Amino acid sequence: MITTRREIILDAALSLVAREGLAALTHRGTDAAAGLPPGSTSYYYRRKAELLEAMIDRLAERLQAESEELKSAFTTVLANQGREAAFAFVADELVVCADADRDLLIARLEIMLAASRDPALSGACERLAQAAMRPMLFFVDLLAGPAVGQGCAMACAALLDGLMLPYATGQGAAPTAAQVRAACSALLD
Questions:
Q1: Which of 119, 120, 65, 123 minimizes the C-alpha distance to 97?
Q2: With 146 labelled, which of 37, 52, 54, 65 sits at a CA distance of 20 to 30 A?
Q3: What is the pLDDT of residue 77?
Q4: Which of 158, 162, 163 is closest to 179 using CA atoms?
Q5: Which residue from 136, 151, 126 is spatially nearest to 56, judged by alpha carbons?
Q6: Do residues 153 and 137 lie in contact, with contact meaning Cβ atoms separated by under 8 Å?
Q7: For residue 127, how many C-alpha atoms fall within 13 Å in the half-sphere facing its CB?
Q8: What is the pTM of this model?
Q9: Looking at residue 134, which CATH number applies to its domain?
């Protein structure tokens, strides 16, 4: 897969926000994080607001891509091995994804917290919340049935965020797949 310069810049911006917070998002900081010459970020994004919006779009795009991969694999496991194996697979994969993409988790949480103080970010926050919840809605529909609906999917997504919060803040280890399975199972029951 070919990575464009814009993707390099935006991924570096996400890592910068995950490491140092949204206040650290600057053109120079992003150039340094990306290992690019000064002025590279400002060539593509003249204003910080443009960089922030593009970074949020990139985060939503990456979350969506992960979601599609997970959904495809989940559907295969469900069809070939059944509901219990599919449920275990989802729990395992959610923990693996959270650990592998800790920066995405932290950046998403950072943006969502910033949106609580900055009304201009509320639309971005909504897009990220929907991107994070989309796979949950899919899994809940297949595992518990569509009658359970969006409310349960929102609760599952919030539950997972809550389980990941100590890990994201450096206050604990990532939850285990068994913990995720137990919490989601209790919620779905």
A1: 65
A2: 65
A3: 86
A4: 163
A5: 126
A6: yes
A7: 18
A8: 0.83
A9: 1.10.357.10
pLDDT at 117: 87
Closest CA to 17 of 114, 100, 97: 114
Any idea of the CA torsion for 64, 71, 166, 148, to the nearest 10 degrees? 110
The pLDDT tens digits along the chain (189 residues) read 568 999 999 999 999 999 999 999 999 999 999 999 999 999 999 999 999 999 999 998 888 888 888 888 888 888 899 878 887 887 787 777 777 788 888 898 888 888 888 888 888 878 887 877 777 777 777 766 666 667 777 777 788 888 888 888 888 888 888 888 888 777 766
Domain extent for 24? 5-188
Looking at the 3D structure of the chain, how many domains does it have?
1
The Cβ of residue 60 has, within 10 Å, a number of other Cβ atoms equal to 19
Helices (H), the chain: 5-20, 27-34, 40-44, 48-81, 83-100, 102-115, 122-144, 149-168, 177-188
The whole-angstrom separation of Cα 188 and Cα 145 is 10
